[in-house]
Structure formats: C-alpha cells, structure tokens
Design goal:
alpha/beta
C-alpha cells in the first residue's frame, strides 16, 4: 500500500462529493450530497485503493460525513468528526451564486477578486480565524498519527488552507488552487518538514 515512511504522517485530504447547491457558496449550510455526488462515491473509493488508511477524520457537516462514511465502510475504520474542519462561514453569501454576490455585494466582490485581502462577509467568518482553526486541527491530527496514513474529508476552503500552509503560499493565492468534488490531495508531514505529493487528483 502507498504509505509514508515511519517518521511521517501521510494525510490524504479529500474534498467531499458534490452536494446539493454545488456551485453556490455553501459555507456552513448543512446540505446533503446531490444525486451526482452519491454517484461519485464508488469512483472515490476506487481512487483511494492504493493508499493505506489507518484513520478517517472529517468535518461534521453532512456532505463531508456522508463522503467519509462511504470510505469507512470499505476499510472497517471508524470516522472521527472534527467540527473545526468545517468550511469557512460565508454569512449572507451562503446559498448565492457568484453572479448573485457580484450583483448584491459589488464592493465586497471586487475586493474578493482582487485577492489582496479576504474581506469578512456580513454575518460570516473572517478569513484569519478560519485559517487558524483549520491549521490547528490538522496539527492535532498529524501529532496523533506519526507513522500512519490518515484520510481527512473536508471542504475546498479548508483543503486550500492546508495546501497553502504546506507550500508557504500567501493567502491571496489560495483560491487559485482547484478543488473538485472528490478531489484527492496527499501531503506527507515529517518532523523536519512537509512534502506535497499531489493536488486535486
């Protein structure tokens, strides 16, 4: 099986399968997988076959839990819920398409696209606390799993934060990283450093 060395923790980051409302800002809305998303699960199971799985962690939102449970059933591994892996809260943007956002919040939309900063959406979560909670949770998972290979099922934003931290990217570049539904990313965390093995496979 594809496994990191004994000194590393291999984290296979998986974006959840397609959810109801995919293509809109879902944020922390607790929506189920769509019909298309449920059909993606067997493909994801096959895609993960080359990887050892010693533990599975996931966001507590339904779309992540359903994806993680489909993987766990094939591996006889329990799923540990981690609420800090939730997507960023988008407040009043949740449920809107980008066109809706651009029409209703033109100034914020321009700031968001410019990328110099990530303005806080009304009623939503600021980017820095979001990044901090995801980073802390991933550090806890890695610290508990040296020499093991784990799957973390989360959301596009949370996965971008993990990849950005591993690559030393500035925050303004994170949203250049594609994360498709069921996208697979592999990061090896060594005590001496980090190696990103693949992104959005």
């Amino acid at each position: 099986m594809n496994r990191a060395s004994d000194q590393a923790c291999r984290v296979v980051l998986v974006r959840h399968a397609a959810a109801e409302g995919q293509g809109r800002f879902l944020g922390q809305r607790d929506v189920p997988l769509s019909t298309a998303g449920r059909k993606q699960l067997p493909v994801l199971v096959r895609k993960l076959r080359p990887y050892a799985v010693d533990a599975i962690y996931c966001s507590d939102l339904t779309r992540a839990r359903a994806t993680a449970m489909a993987l766990a059933r094939r591996r006889a591994v329990s799923v540990a819920l981690r609420p800090r892996l939730r997507e960023m809260g988008f407040g009043r943007w949740e449920g809107l398409s980008w066109d809706d956002v651009a029409e209703q919040f033109p100034r914020l939309a321009r700031q968001w696209l410019a990328g110099r900063s990530r303005p806080r959406v009304p009623g939503g979560e600021s980017f820095a606390p979001f990044r901090a909670r995801v980073t802390r949770e991933l550090k806890r998972i890695v610290a508990a799993n040296h020499g093991r290979s784990v799957v973390v099922v989360a959301h596009a934003g949370a996965i971008r934060v993990a990849i950005g931290a591993a690559l030393g990217l500035d925050d303004r570049h994170l949203f250049r990283i594609a994360q498709s539904p069921c996208g697979l990313n592999v990061i090896d965390y060594f005590k001496s450093g980090v190696i990103v093995r693949c992104i959005n496979a």
